[in-house]
UniProtKB/TrEMBL annotation:
Family named by the database record: Belongs to the pterin-4-alpha-carbinolamine dehydratase family.
Key words, A-Z: Lyase
GO biological process: tetrahydrobiopterin biosynthetic process
UniProt source species: Pontibacter arcticus
Enzyme Commission identifier(s): 4.2.1.96
GO MF assignments: 4-alpha-hydroxytetrahydrobiopterin dehydratase activity
UniProt name for this protein: 4a-hydroxytetrahydrobiopterin dehydratase
Top enzyme class: lyase
Catalytic activity: (4aS,6R)-4a-hydroxy-L-erythro-5,6,7,8-tetrahydrobiopterin = (6R)-L-erythro-6,7-dihydrobiopterin + H2O
Amino acid sequence: MWIEEENKLKRNLTFKDFKQAMAFMNTVADIAEEMDHHPWWSNVYNKITIELTTHDAGNTITDRDHKLARQIDVIYDSMKSE
Ligand SMILES: C[C@H](O)[C@H](O)[C@H]1CNC2=NC(N)=NC(=O)C2=N1
């Protein structure tokens, strides 16, 4: 699950394969645009590292980060069962 470190929420996710990781990123991208709140993330094959912090608040953790984190958990949990 998420850890709080260096004023960021951090989580590492693993997927079935690269395609599923990309599908996840595209789904989250839509949510991030709707929320106008965007992750810092990196992908290597079926693994994604995500860090959430709020730049507008001086790179601290705000409710916007927790809200996006919850949305990310919902999307990830829905894909794991695929
Ligand atoms: C101009 C734009 O609305 C702001 O820069 C938004 C965009 N996405 C953002 N994402 C994150 N993580 N933090 C922000 O403060 C933020 N601000």
